[in-house]
Structure formats: structure tokens, C-alpha cells
Amino acid sequence: YTGQGGQESEDYESEEQLQHRILTAALEFVPEHGWTAEAIAEGAKTLGLSAAAAGMFHSDGSELILHFVSQCNTKLSELLEQEQKLVQLGEAEKKPTDQFLRDAVQARLRMLIPYIEKWPQALSILLLPHNIPSSLNLLTSMIDDIWHYAGDQSTDFNWYTRRAVLTGIYNTTELVMIQDSSPDFEDTWRFLENRVADAMNMGNTANQVQSTGEAVVQGLMGAAVTVSYAETSRAVR
Amino acid sequence: AAAGLCRYRALLARRGGALRALCGSVRGLAAGPETHFGFQTVTEEERREKIYRVFESVAKKYDVMNDSMTLGIHRVWKDILVHKMNPSPGTLLLDVAGGTGDIAFRFINYVRSVRERQLQRKLRHHQNLSWQEIAESYQEDKSKSLGDSQVVVCDINKEMLKVGKQKAQHLGYSEGLSWVLGNAEELPFDDDKFDVYTIAFGIRNVTRIDLALQEAYRVLKPGGRFLCLEFSQVSNSLLSRLYDLYSFQVIPVLGEVIAGDWKSYQYLVESIRRFPPQEEFKAMIEDAGFFKVDYQNLNSGIVAIHSGFKL
Description:
The structure holds two protein chains of two kinds.
Chain A: H1 15-26, H2 30-33, H3 37-46, H4 62-88, H5 97-110, H6 119-126, H7 132-149, H8 158-178, H9 186-236
Helix pairs in contact in A: 1-3, 1-4, 4-7, 5-9, 7-8, 8-9
Chain B: H1 2-23, E1 34-37, E2 40-43, H2 44-58, H3 62-70, H4 73-85, E3 92-96, H5 102-125, H6 131-142, E4 150-155, H7 158-171, E5 177-181, E6 194-200, H8 209-219, E7 220-231, H9 237-259, H10 262-274, H11 278-287, E8 291-298, E9 303-309
Parallel strand pairs in B: 3-4, 3-6, 4-5, 6-7
Antiparallel strand pairs in B: 1-2, 7-9, 8-9
Helix pairs in contact in B: 3-9, 4-5, 9-10
């Protein structure tokens, strides 16, 4: 039902751009007011607009949270892009996969630190039915990004398992971080390290299972051949 | 007699029209541009006069009639409007055609409860202050129970304002409330003054709606919101037929029985039919310069809330 009137000139800001500006300005009021329409109203006021402009957004603060998550993901992508450039220029060493994942997830989660007190509220709002499509979208594209910069070239079923695994690691670490009270969240980073190590081992175990499986299959095949040979020779006799 | 009067007036209007055609480009000399009054055709000046007289005569029974015509549902509609507005303390509201103050009183209640919640939250954070400091904070907060919020009720009709003021006194509303006599087509306020502009069940009585919308745009601050609660077109055809039946058969009778005024309520019902439908009104609001214009139907379109922002 939304419409858009008025002329468009070169330095004319679109509605969307203005909305983004308001939401960005609102972030600084989140620690005090939470992810609410009040924070958005305060943000609008700093831009010289009436507090009534907060009426443009949902009263539950959904858009503010989604805007923040999207901003964090963009920052993460830029960070990873820069790191990749350094590696390509030879100024830095290419990290092994487990360390790369650990650093990427840690960098992303650290962006939550200024808002960590109100973050549980944000998570519950992101789980509301009308927000799930957008929040899921943002989550999966962030995970994709991380794997892309980690050098994941797979096009087989591994693509799905890798995403599922990293999503699991990210979500569980986020939940641990929310109730972590250790200095500089060191408990969280240790948890993260363990989960990533588990995931790597699981990959090895999977390979082991596969080779063991192959050996078993070969054994069975051999047994089947021997048995059938014995049968046919008995039949012949 | 009424029919005869109508025909006579229509004749006058037509003759005025012929005269105007003769005078060529001299507009407004004879009878002025034509418009509608309910299902009649009248000039703009006549319309303003007639509508003034309608509300002058219904003012005292306005609230009673609202309750009986809508079976009390108008209260819910007005509640929804204020909830949609979600005003924060410190908001400056202009309620145009606000006559008997329904929206203004709801606004004050809402802001008061939001303010109370804010104060409670602040107190919870004050757990480790000394008793002295807490007592001091009580003192300074008490004087701002509305948190600087203000509502200005503007109406063109003296009788309606009188009834509104009496109601306010009776219900105990005094703080943050002011009453101004003014015309929606030409508001007596400066530019960029108000956070929110509301007009509930008033805009269909305005003769030049485009002027009222332009004035609304003018007096709103940048970022300010325009909210209009008004009868609109019903989409559901079965409901529409029942609604028509109720409107034309029951309401004027109620008007005669309760307020002793059949004609005014006949006008009211006709004026609802004459008001542009949701999409058309939305386009008019956009023409005045508002952005993010949308509408919400209540009761399948019997009533609609249009909202727009000055960006």
C-alpha cells in the first residue's frame, strides 16, 4: 500500500535512504532504550526530524534489528575482503581453515558487544514468524560469505554440510556469548575453538568412515564372489 | 417540501451556471464554484454555511448520536487511531475538526501511561541511589506527568468547541490541552510546528480537501505524521448492502428521535457516500507532498485510517 510522490532530483534522497539514516542514528540509543520504537524516535530526533517519524517503522523494532544485522554482515564481508587482498599481495599468510573460521566468527560476534545486554531481546524478535524469512536470509548469506572467503570451492553435497555445520557453530556460540560474563568473553572464544575443532575432526571421521566403509564393501564383495564361485562349482559338480 | 427546495436550489445553481458562462472568465462573481452537499449540488460558500449549521445544531447531542449510530464502535476506532499514532511524551499534536475532544483526551491518556512506564523503568535503575536522591527525582518528575506533550484542538465551529471544553472540565482534563477556533483550509498556525496532525471524521466535511491537506503539510514538522480517520468505501458487497440499508433507513430516524434533526443525519449519511474511496484519497494525500502514504481498513472499509509522513 505504500506510494511515493514528488520529484526526484540528483541529490534527492530516496525514502529508503532516509530510513537507513534514521535506523543508523537510532543504534546509539539501543543500549538505553532497547530495540524499540523509542530508540528509533530518538534517532529521528538527532537527524532533526520529529519523533513521529518512528511511525514509519514497525512498533516492535524489527527493522532496526534487521538493519543492524545487515550492517554487521557488510562490515564482516569488507573485513574478509581486505584480509584476502593482503594474502594475495603476499603480505600475510593464508590461514588454515579452522583458524580462519574461528577468526571470522569471532570478528562477527565481537560486533555485538556494545549491544550485548539487549541482544537476547533482539534474538527473540528475529524469531517472530514475520521476521524469520529476512533473518534467515541474512544468516545464510553471511555463512556463505565466510565459506567463500575460506576458499570453499565445493559444488557437491559438501556445500550443504559445510553451511549447516558453520551455522550450527555460529548460533551456539552466539547463545553462549549472551550469558558469558568472563573478561573479554574468553569463555566464548574457547567454546568456539572447541566447536570448530570438533567440526574439523568430524570431517576426518567422515573420511575415515568412508574409507572403512569402502574396505567393508570390498570385503563383502570378495565374500560374495567367493560364495557364488563355490555355489557354481558345486552346481557344476 | 424538501424535494421542492432541492429543485429550486438546483434551478438557481443552473441559472448561476449560465450567468457564469456569459461572464466568461470572471469566476466567483455570481455564485462561485459548485460542489456537493450530501446528494445536492450547491456552491462552495453555501456548503460551508450549511455544514456550519449542521454541526451547530448537533453539537450538544454529537457524542450521544455517535454512540447510538455506531453502537459504540466509534470508541474502538478512535482507540485504534491513537494506538497507531503511538505518541511518545513530548509530542505536539494538532487535532483538527476535533470538536468534542475525543482524540485529544485519548492522546492525553496514552501519553500519561507511557510516561508512567518510563518513570517506573527509571526508578528500577535507581536501586542504588540514596533516599534523598530518589525523593528529589520524584519531585521533578511529578511536575511533568505528560512529559511536555501538548494537544491543540482546532475546530471551525464554536458550538462544538464549547461542548468540548465543557467535557474536558467535567472529565478533569486541563494540562497540555488548548482549544483554538480555526478553519482546516486556512490554519492559524505557523509552518513546521506540530509532530502529528489528526483529523477524525472531519475531513469529509471540509469543502476544499486539497487545501486542508496542503495546510496539514505546511504546519507539520519535517518527519511529522498525518493521520486521518474517516468513513470510506466498503469492499465486501454483502456488507455494503447491509451498510447502505442501515445508513439510509436507520440513521436518519435515530437522528430525528434522539437529536430532533432528521436532515443533519441525512446529510451525514450522504456525505459518507460522496467521500472519495481509499485509493483516491491516498492519491490526494500524496499530491499534497506526503510520503509513505498508506491506509488501514477497519471493519472491511466502513472506516479507514490514512497515514502519511512529511519527509
